[in-house]
TrEMBL record:
A matching Pfam family: ABC2_membrane_6
Keywords: Membrane, Transmembrane, Transmembrane helix
Organism ancestry: Bacteria, Bacillati, Bacillota, Bacilli, Bacillales
Protein name, entry field: ABC-2 family transporter protein
Top-level taxon of origin: Bacteria
Transmembrane domains' residue ranges: 21-46, 52-69, 142-172, 200-221, 227-247
C-alpha cells in the first residue's frame, strides 16, 4: 500500500513537470553540457600526461562514470532529500505528517526528475571504457553485472550520506553549505583515483564519507586486480550499513522536529 502510494506520487510529480516541457528539456540539456565539460577537463589532463599515477584515461573514465551513474540514481529517486532544508525553513514539512505514507517516502516522491542527460552520458562513457578494457583483454564480460551491482550499491551510499546530512537540518536548519562539502565536493573528488590524495583525506573517503567504496576500491579489483573479489562484498555491506545508520538517524531527527503550526 505504501509503495503504491509512493509511485502514485512520483507519477503525479512527473506529470506536473511535463506541463513545462521547455524548462524540462532545457534543464536536462544544461545539466548534460555541464557534466560533459567537467569530464572533458579531466580528459584533456589525461591526454597531456597519458595517465595519472598509473591510471589511464579509460580507467579514470570508469571511475567518473560509476560515480556519475550512482549520483544519477540517487538524485532521480530521492531528489528532495537533498533539499530538505527548504521544507524546514518554509514549514511545508508539516503537510507530510497528514499523508498516509511515511514522511521519508513522501519527501522522496517530491519533484521527481529523471536525469536523462546524466544517465545517457554516464552510460555512454562507461560502455566505451568497458569496450576498451575488453578489447585489450583487461577484463571479461563479467565486468558488466559487477559494475551494475556497484552502481546500485553506490547510489545507496550516496543516498545515505545525503539523508544523514539533511537530517542534521532538524538541529541546524541551514545545511546547504555542509551538503556542498559532504556531497558535491566529495563526489567531485572521488572522480579521480584516491591514491592522488594524502592519507588523511583518503581515510575520510573510506570511513566517515565512504565514497571510495563506490568506485575506487571496486576498480582496484575489477581493473587492477590489486585486491580480491571480497571488496565487492565489502561494498555491499558498507551500503547496507550506511543505509541502516542513516535511517536510524532520520528517525531520531524527525522526533526532534518542531512543527511551525502551519
Amino acid at each position: 500500500m505504501e509503495m503504491r502510494m509512493y509511485f502514485m506520487l512520483i507519477r503525479a510529480s512527473i506529470k506536473s513537470r511535463l506541463q513545462y516541457k521547455f524548462n524540462f528539456i532545457f534543464s536536462m540539456l544544461m545539466a548534460m553540457l555541464l557534466n560533459v565539460s567537467e569530464f572533458l577537463m579531466i580528459a584533456f589532463v589525461l591526454l597531456k600526461f597519458n595517465s595519472i599515477q598509473g591510471w589511464s584515461i579509460y580507467e579514470v573514465g570508469y571511475l567518473y562514470s560509476v560515480i556519475l551513474l550512482s549520483k544519477t540514481l540517487y538524485r532521480t529517486f530521492a531528489s528532495d532529500v537533498h533539499h530538505l532544508e527548504k521544507y524546514l525553513v518554509s514549514g511545508d514539512l508539516d503537510s507530510f505528517f497528514i499523508r498516509p505514507i511515511p514522511i521519508l517516502l513522501t519527501l522522496m516522491s517530491q519533484n521527481f526528475f529523471l536525469l536523462i542527460g546524466e544517465l545517457l552520458q554516464g552510460t555512454f562513457i562507461i560502455l566505451i571504457c568497458i569496450q576498451h578494457f575488453h578489447s585489450i583483454g583487461q577484463v571479461d564480460l563479467w565486468i558488466i553485472p559487477i559494475t551494475i551491482l556497484i552502481i546500485l550499491a553506490g547510489s545507496i551510499i550516496l543516498f545515505s550520506i545525503g539523508l544523514a546530512t539533511s537530517t542534521l537540518g532538524f538541529w541546524l536548519t541551514r545545511v546547504e553549505m555542509l551538503q556542498n562539502l559532504t556531497e558535491d565536493a566529495a563526489m567531485n573528488a572521488v572522480r579521480y583515483p584516491l591514491s592522488l590524495y594524502p592519507n588523511w583525506l583518503k581515510g575520510i573517503f573510506l570511513t566517515i564519507l565512504p565514497l571510495g567504496f563506490i568506485n575506487y576500491l571496486p576498480a582496484l579489483y575489477i581493473l587492477k586486480q590489486d585486491v580480491g573479489i571480497w571488496i565487492i562484498g565489502a561494498t555491499i555491506m558498507v551500503a547496507c550499513l550506511c543505509l541502516w545508520l542513516s535511517l536510524r538517524f532520520w528517525k531520531i531527527g524527525l522526533s526532534r522536529y518542531q512543527s511551525t503550526g502551519s
